[in-house]
Amino acid sequence: VTPTTGSLSTYLALPKAVLCVSHDSGIIQWIEEDVPSSLLQDVLAKHGITGEDVSLVELETGEFLIPGFIDTHTHAPQVPNIGSGQEHELLDWLAKVTFPTEAKFEDVTFARKAYTSAVRRIIDNGTTTCCYYGTLHLEGTKVLADIVHDFGQRAFVGKCNMNRHSPDYYVEPSAEESVARTRAMIAHIRSLSGSPSHALVQPVVTPRFAISCTPELLVQLGDLVAADPTLAIQTHISENAAEIVFTKSLFPPDILPTPPLHQGPKPTETTYAGVYDAYGLIRSNTILAHAVHLEDSEVKLIKERNAGISHCPTSNFNLRSGCAKVGAFLDAGIKVGLGTDVSGGFSPSILTAVQHASIASKVVALSAPEHKHTHPHAAATSIPFANRHLPIATLLYLATLGGAEVCNLEKRVGSLEVGKEFDALVVSVREDAGNPNLWGLDLDQALGRTSEVGKEELQAMLERFLFCGDDRNIRRV
Ligand code: GUN
Ligand code: FE
């Protein structure tokens, strides 16, 4: 089962497909659809493969392949905090719950232990590509990158830049020190993983959010990324109402530099996106998390810069931030993926993000009266996504190929297509996977007719898995 390049509204469900991966390169060589068992040897022979060259993995009825999940926004040091302090909104939650825990990662021994368990848990949940925030600590963040690299997960790892509006015990002493540590982190990660075009683990410049960075720091980070177009950038944007008011007060338009790509007169009002843009931090390899309360001009700017949005619905509900208008972003042609945003979000699983992305789109639809109760089966490409529920195909896309686009990895991963890296999960909805939430009439029927799992049964299995599945149903990563 795979999304396909160029369509957000359809996906491929191919029962009895044979997919061939090169053992040497890990690249998908060919895919043949509808191959009955009796013809398997013929198909292999057609591709010049004899018994000795091949190791054959056959999936059982009730098992299928999907591309690995992509988490475009999470905080590795917050995994120990999952499920605590959820009575707060963003700024209180940072001060009371998050910063005290992150400060502990100054202790490298603690960091190694906590990160090892966090990364293993994230991989077990089927996330094969992950955009990680570390803490502000250089050594701890290097340890995170080492662990991710040793596990062989594809990832972006960033050390938080934060030199103001943070507690005394958890703040960087100066812009210079923050940037020097960032440079050291970049050098360390590149020494692990090699050239950006093939690296599994890549560095990402991570100004935590505008509030925690002085203008001097943002200027220096802007210079750093301007000198290296391959450097990815990640940050938070427009998550919470109080945060937005504070951001605008810290960056009145007269203190902002004129952005390099800016045309026309200087704006008289600041927008959140306009702040980052003024420092050259919004570009095609920038990942913007949340985007709950974007103004129209910000949506336009993000599209113009071809930056990506990480939709973090679990966190947006949990911290009472709001519902991002994902349908409108998709209509605008913006790249969108999903983020767990642990521990603002209380689950490290992209499946939970899928479920909450569906609910968030339904909440948006409910509050748009003109669209209420229309398009019950909307799936056609011609129907705009704004103000309606996201179809299954779109949810699958957000969890995989959409995330790959946000990370600029769509040529390498995100779908099961010839020429891409084989980066996939074996999903099992079988009874012996041990998840009773998935057992139900249509599935039982599908599984009962052992040799007869067709496209429709496979689609039913996917929907059940997306909404009721968990890590028990992810057999192999
Ligand atoms: N904004 C700044 N830092 C954070 C964080 O750690 N989590 C979330 N959700 N938003 C933030
Ligand atoms: Fe976050």
TrEMBL record:
Residues 64-429 form the Amidohydrolase-related domain. Catalyzes the hydrolytic deamination of guanine, producing xanthine and ammonia. Gene3D superfamilies: Metal-dependent hydrolases, Urease, subunit C, domain 1. One of its GO terms (cellular component) is cytosol. GO terms for molecular function: guanine deaminase activity; zinc ion binding. It holds the Pfam family Amidohydro_1. Pathway: Purine metabolism; guanine degradation; xanthine from guanine: step 1/1. Its cofactor is Zn(2+). The keyword Zinc applies. This is Probable guanine deaminase. GO terms for biological process: guanine metabolic process. Its EC number is 3.5.4.3. Keywords: Hydrolase, Metal-binding, Zinc. It catalyses: guanine + H2O + H(+) = xanthine + NH4(+). Belongs to the metallo-dependent hydrolases superfamily. ATZ/TRZ family. SUPFAM superfamilies: Metallo-dependent hydrolases. The keyword Hydrolase applies. It comes from Steccherinum ochraceum.
